[in-house]
């Protein structure tokens, strides 16, 4: 991206509650399945503006939780969101591929694909405490065969597979899947609703060429989701090293 394109992207996403589909119920589901509580060390990898970081802070009142985020703007938003929980909970600007410290839980919502599922899990193995787990959400193809609409939606992520393909990548990293659930329809609607409102608001403010291009790209994404929403999903997986 050019600097102008990056600025336009950040303008579109400014002040959104989340940077991708998901909901607090996802966090609570994972914590319940893992039976986690007490003075844990937790990493929220690529925490964005801090929606899940806040849920983790509320759900794990004795844990030390660090959110790491590469984009400074989002790290600042996350820090403001969890300020009431500082210093027990913090958000820092950094690279999720090389986290500092060791952790009982690494949470990563909709971002592991930037590293690659296998590569990212392999890289995190050394920072997991014994018995530690990774919980991540990953784009997944639904249906046999997947619909043309779903494939078109994910055209910029050619590595996408069905659930079995994700499990193969997890296994290749030396992990085993403990459980999974699908993130489909409602969490996506809850993400795209505020994004649509922001697009509509920005169009009324005489956007320049770079921002107009960004608005058009985001609108195309939303329209494609509406056309195939039952077939567009993330898989949320709980995995542990073996």
Query: Terminal Cα separation, in Å?
Result: 39 Å
Strands, total number: 7
Total count of helical runs of at least 4 residues: 9
Over all CA atoms, what is the radius of gyration? 18 Å
**Count of discrete domains:** 1
Kindly report the average pLDDT value. Answer: 96
Low-confidence stretches: none
How would you describe the overall organization of this protein?
- With 242 residues, this protein is of the alpha/beta class.
- The chain has one domain (3-241): Rossmann fold (3-Layer(aba) Sandwich).
- Helix content is 42%, strand content 23%.
- The chain has helices spanning 3-13, 24-34, 51-59, 72-81, 117-124, 148-153, 163-172, 186-203, 209-227; strands at 41-45, 64-69, 89-93, 103-108, 128-141, 175-184, 232-241.
- It has a seven-stranded mixed β-sheet, sandwiched between helices.
- Helix 4 links the parallel strand 2 and strand 3 (89-93).
- The chain is globular, with a radius of gyration of 18 Å.
- 37% of the residues are buried.
Features of the shown structure:
single chain; 242 residues; alpha/beta; Rossmann fold; seven-stranded mixed beta sheet; 9 helices
Q: What is this structure, in a nutshell?
A:
By secondary structure, the chain is of the alpha/beta class. It is 42% helix and 23% strand. The protein has a single domain, classed as Rossmann fold (3-Layer(aba) Sandwich).
């Amino acid at each position: 991206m050019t600097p102008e394109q990056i600025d336009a992207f950040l303008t579109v996403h400014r002040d959104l509650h989340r940077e991708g589909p998901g909901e607090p119920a996802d966090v609570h589901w994972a914590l319940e399945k893992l039976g986690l509580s007490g003075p844990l060390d937790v990493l929220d990898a690529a925490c964005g503006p801090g929606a899940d970081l806040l849920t983790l802070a509320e759900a794990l009142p004795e844990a030390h939780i660090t959110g790491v985020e590469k984009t400074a703007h989002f790290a600042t938003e996350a820090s403001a969101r969890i300020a009431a929980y500082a210093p027990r909970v913090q958000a820092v600007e950094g690279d999720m591929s090389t986290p500092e410290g060791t952790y009982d839980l690494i949470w990563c919502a909709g971002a592991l694909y930037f590293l690659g599922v296998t590569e990212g899990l392999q890289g995190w193995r050394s920072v997991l405490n014994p018995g530690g787990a990774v919980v991540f959400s990953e784009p997944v193809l639904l249906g046999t065969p997947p619909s043309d609409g779903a494939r078109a939606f994910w055209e910029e992520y050619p590595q996408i597979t069905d659930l079995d393909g994700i499990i193969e990548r997890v296994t290749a990293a030396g992990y085993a899947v403990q459980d999974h659930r699908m993130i489909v329809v409602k969490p996506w609607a809850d993400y795209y609703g505020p994004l649509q409102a922001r697009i509509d608001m920005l169009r009324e403010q005489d956007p320049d060429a770079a921002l107009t291009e960004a608005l058009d790209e985001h609108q195309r994404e939303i329209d494609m989701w509406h056309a195939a929403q039952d077939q567009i999903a993330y898989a949320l997986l709980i995995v542990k090293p073996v």
